[in-house]
Sequence to fold (99 residues):
Amino acid sequence: MLTGKQKSYLRSLANTLEPIIQVGKGGVTETVTTAVDQALIAREIVKISVLNNCHDPLDVVAQELVKATDSFLVQQLGRKILLYRPNQENPVIQFPLGL
Fold:
């Protein structure tokens, strides 16, 4: 579980990130899940864009991705979802002391 300060720190890192994955009218498919999983392995933090033609509510899409990738939901803002999963072997993101 992430603390509020940790989520705030991750949101600050994600300000400059562009969404690298889009969820369209097919919703959360195996292909989308695989792409998110691979991005989390490489980056630890991923910004996802949910397109307007996606029939599933944003909350449902976010929870399906969190469950399928075993990640943490950092933020839902507009049509964007921010996910985080720490990489145990090669950590990319280091939290400052005290978080």
About this structure: The domain at 4-84 is CATH 3.30.110.60 (Translation Initiation Factor IF3). The radius of gyration is 13 Å. The chain has one domain: 4-84.
